[in-house]
């Protein structure tokens, strides 16, 4: 027996049966091949009468003849040879068992008495299908329940879903020459996947494309199909595709589905309600614990008080569980739902879900079940204080689907917005943990837009979303945009919640941190002071949050001081260098004043023992010593060691590189530039020429240049410059250090 599997609705079981008949005939031409449709007793009796006429069974043309019994007797007779009987679409277990309402229908059609058209059925229908050594019966059915009334479970052959490769092959074959066009393979693959690889849907789509060609291509059909549920429904209602399909069966896949829905509703309404709820979830990974609340709370307008007794509650839970299992079994029998390896998780075809939603829309029940879906998902989705990432990961696909299922009632709108926020918050945090900050930012922007649209810009949940977006922007260095959002959020909270509300103080702290990152330490520290006072007043001085606020304030204050010191240090280094330049240009008073200023500031900022402070002090001491020695020697000496150093410096300056020369020009005061240039020119004319080895000709000894080494190595230049004069000057004069000490 062929039975369509749970995951292969419209999997082509009748087409497989037809193919099997052809192969049987090719292998054994003398074998009789018989076919009967079992969708209802009327159709089945009609086909049995046609079989009796084709086989020329005696009495087969008699209107009162019992066609079932006549065919049954012929099949049992071995003299008639080998045969194959196909009973197609035996989906209704009632038809196969000929009981209940089906018996009444049979009495009307076949006859209510022996004198009326051969009499009523004397036995169940499947008993007219005799077991035989020289014949075989092949039955196709959509439901496992009907199949198990005819054969043992091990004799059922499930029709598995068509795989992707076979689906593409079928679609190419149905498209014909159009499938050979360049660039079609990718579109064929996408369309086959969009239609869940269902043979009937593929044939229907190919027929629609070919009928509308050349104005419609595979790409255009796929684009229209993906536009909306309404457009997909219109395309899938196109009745074309299978010429060999039974004439009484619709070629439009959605119409066929909806006929089945009506049938399920008639035999088990609660199963149809369960299907109505499940059609809004993502097609995969539907958890059992979200499938509740689909039973009608009361029937026939009756209401009953709920008994809270534990024993009665257990009994009610047991009854509900049993009812759920029965409903699920019904849906599984009709291949609407499949159970995954995890027995508490279910799957559906996307086309089944689409057809169910359109069916609900035609029944004016779409809004009701959509809101039930949102309510269930909102109740089970973890909030922002998440503790279970696996749970968030499991439910997020369903929350993502819910983004397109906007409800209408105010209550459901608020649940919908809260659910989307919780799901998006969890996902955004996960993206941040993976350093996917741009994706996290996009998620927060979507959530904020939804909250503003549904709840309003001033709603507390909207403000939380805005705060999260600003934090993400700040982490990406987008400080200006983040500051705008922080300030707007803070102003709204102050107006609505007050200046000392914990949420307001949290926004104050966030803005303070951002301003510190932007270098606005004054305003940042003022905000931290405000936050510290507010926390101390609200939760006490010793509360961990208050202490944390004070700690953050001290960290920002130390950052402010450190940066101030660094700036002042850079400025003082420039002052010290300028003092050295003035000394080179013999502007001794200006140089001394700058050295004094630099030393005093270095001593204040860096401390007395800092290397830079000590170095500045030594430079100032050397200059003071030289000036004293120059003053005492003016009467008896024409030049001092310092003068000699200056001459050497002027000699060397004529050979410095253009870069160094430009640097000296920039660093020297503007007033001294002309004098500097004149001195260098005079020195160039009077200086003895050097050979290519750097030695002076005619045995002259070259002086040690004052500025040797790289221009930027100021410390090394100073040491070479002063080395020859420090020793003699310190022996003749009292050091500047002793003078300062006194």
Automatic annotation (TrEMBL):
Domain DUF7779: 266-363
Stated name of the protein: DUF7779 domain-containing protein
Pfam families associated with the record: DUF7779, TPR_10, TPR_12
Composition bias, Polar residues: 722-742
InterPro entries: DUF7779, NLR-like, P-loop_NTPase, TPR-like_helical_dom_sf
Residue ranges of the TM segments: none
Record Gene3D superfamilies: P-loop containing nucleotide triphosphate hydrolases (3.40.50.300), Tetratricopeptide repeat domain (1.25.40.10)
Record field: compositional bias (Basic and acidic residues): 681-693
Domain of life of the native organism: Eukaryota
